[in-house]
Design brief:
alpha/beta, about 40% helix, globular
């Protein structure tokens, strides 16, 4: 595959973006700085690098000749970053680069080394560190809680990585610190809820809904003041669906797939049934999704409908009779009367008594139906082919409006929100984002792992899992380093999530084991902050009864539709 890709790139005369930094790094090693500046016209004298903690080694090494040239001319360059917010290691971000400054992390040991030693000396000669110790974003309780929690939690890191949170810089009067002063005088609120996942499997979604309603109904907040943060996008989709089902408007940067809607699936499988009436699978799926709409709390086992599906497929009983939706044959009658697929879907929604007024999924699905029925290809089979091709992409995506925002922590970086609800928060710093997929790294068998040389194989893709501990000293060291880095990743995700809040921070997490729960360990001696909760351990810092200081007056309500059920328009039109 690699050879085929190289050949295609050569034929098209293109360079993939993933290869650009490697190529530029090679060029920097082969030519002097004057050559580079001859090409760019010596236009850039000051280099500013933002989010430096997420910069890769190659990116920084590519910039160093430009930085050195500017510094040698007396022109200032600046890097800005916070190692505590380094959450892009999976994109080659190296937090050690910011902790090692002014030294160059991962110094190249090849023909470039003399030049990079010169760059490093220039950095040391001109280095000045300034720590920004005042928090201008968050209310007092949010700042104080974060100061105390991360002062407690960072000790779980290895000694080298603790420098990301606390360290002194030799030759400077400043250093890296967790502690921040708060600029705002308002008190604010932090509330942590630890629940028993086995006894309360639906606690997270239920509490998110309850908190949102309480804030809007009693404390002067609007939906668009609130964000729900998740670590994984699939949980964001679950929460979005739950809130949507409860009539709470949602804006999500996490894709809410149309296929996750039971109503959409009912329509799609009905279309399949109308094409293949004797297909037991399609019939069973119809019955399953119809039942889920009528009984949302059912166990969701489609096998319960196999007997009825067989009877319907054999023509022994009508599907309408089993579903209890009216006279036999009306689904086929809707097909025969419809002038297009859009009309057919609208007729099916009338039969199923589905109203689209509060259902964004159905509205977007009908928009896709309208877009798909173009030209001469506008039959059911064509729509289903389109659906099968696009179902993993088609989603409800909004961009504005008074709605609760739902996004991953990575998407929230750099943003702030009056209210943050962190759902299913990390409690164990050893937790893996994807437990079934261990970390992997391309390593040289002999040099990196002390394995026997493998003929014709320069590097191997080595799995950094528990088995590595028994594969020799170097393999064990690699595994230990991955464990340490994973801990830092998780603590940094907590830091980014907790510091997005301006006024209120709600943290919902599983209780877990005391020895594995960073939150529970921190809260063990905070019994004076514990309050009564519905089966969960609830800790509260601050008074929850304050109203939104920036409360907006409600605009005069405009008349809204209360029923959007369509009618059979073609029966109401006559042509003279």
């Amino acid at each position: 595959i690699g050879e085929a890709f190289k050949q295609l790139a050569a034929e098209e005369e293109i360079v993939h973006i993933s290869e650009f930094n490697k190529l530029l790094n090679t060029v920097m090693g082969d030519f002097s700085v004057p050559f580079v500046y001859e090409r760019i016209g010596e236009r850039y004298k000051h280099i500013f690098v933002d989010e430096f903690q997420d910069t890769s080694i190659l990116q920084w090494q590519n910039l160093l000749p430009l930085v050195d040239n500017g510094l040698s001319s007396g022109d200032m360059s600046m890097v800005v970053g916070d190692g505590k917010q380094s959450i892009y290691r999976f994109r080659s971000g190296e937090v050690e680069q910011i902790t090692h400054l002014p030294e160059i992390y991962a110094m190249p040991h090849d023909d470039r080394e003399p030049a990079f030693m010169q760059y490093q000396q220039k950095l040391k000669d001109t280095f000045l560190l300034q720590n920004l110790g005042v928090n201008y974003r968050s209310f007092a309780q949010v700042v104080d809680f974060n100061n105390a929690f991360f002062e407690f939690a960072y000790h779980e890191l290895c000694e080298e990585l603790r420098k990301v949170y606390v360290s002194e810089k030799a030759g400077t009067s400043d250093g890296v610190s967790i502690f921040q002063k708060h600029d705002k005088v308002e008190e604010g609120l932090v509330q942590v809820e630890l629940y028993d996942a086995e006894k309360q499997p639906n606690y997270c979604c239920e509490r998110v809904e309850a908190i949102v309603r309480e804030l809007v109904d009693s404390h002067g907040y609007r939906y668009d003041d609130i964000v729900v943060l998740t670590r994984k996008s699939d949980l964001g989709s679950v929460i979005a669906n739950c809130l949507n089902d409860k009539g709470i408007s949602v804006i999500s940067q996490v894709s809410i797939l149309l296929k996750s809607s039971d109503k959409v699936q009912l329509l799609v499988n009905t279309l399949r049934y109308l094409l293949h009436e004797d297909n037991e699978v399609y019939v069973a799926n119809m019955l399953y999704y119809w039942n889920m709409l009528q009984h949302p709390d059912s166990d969701g086992d489609v096998s319960h409908w196999f007997d009825e599906a067989k009877a319907i497929a054999k023509g022994m009983v009508s599907v309408e009779t089993v579903m209890g939706i009216g006279k036999p044959g009306q689904l086929k009658e809707a097909l025969s009367k419809s002038t297009c697929i859009y009309d057919l879907c609208a007729a099916l929604m009338r039969i199923y008594r589905i109203d689209t007024i509060r259902d964004a999924f159905l509205n977007y699905f009908m928009e896709e139906v309208l877009n798909a029925q173009s030209g001469i290809k506008e039959g059911i089979e064509d729509l289903l082919k389109y659906w099968d091709t696009k179902e993993d992409e088609l989603s409800v995506m909004s961009a504005s409006g008074n709605a609760v925002k739902i996004m991953t922590i990575h998407k929230s970086k750099g943003l702030e929100f009056p209210v943050v609800i962190y759902a299913d928060a990390i409690i164990d710093l050893d937790e893996k984002l994807n437990p079934s997929k261990p970390a992997e790294e391309w390593l040289r068998p002999k040099e990196d792992l002390d394995f026997d040389v493998i003929p014709n194989l320069d590097k191997v893709l080595f799995r950094l899992d528990k088995k590595a501990e028994s594969m020799g000293g170097k393999a064990k060291e690699r595994y230990k380093k991955e464990q340490d880095s994973n801990r830092l990743d998780n603590l940094n995700l907590l830091y980014v999530a907790f510091t997005r809040a301006v006024q209120r921070l709600y943290v919902i997490a599983k209780q877990g084991k005391a020895g594995k729960n960073s939150l529970l360990g921190f809260l063990q001696d905070k019994s004076d902050h514990q309050v009564a909760g519905s089966g969960a351990l609830v800790y509260r810092f601050g008074d929850p009864n304050f109203r939104n200081p920036k409360e907006k007056m409600e605009e005069e309500a405009s008349p809204v539709l209360t029923d959007s059920t369509s009618i059979e328009w073609f029966q109401r039109i006559s042509v003279d």
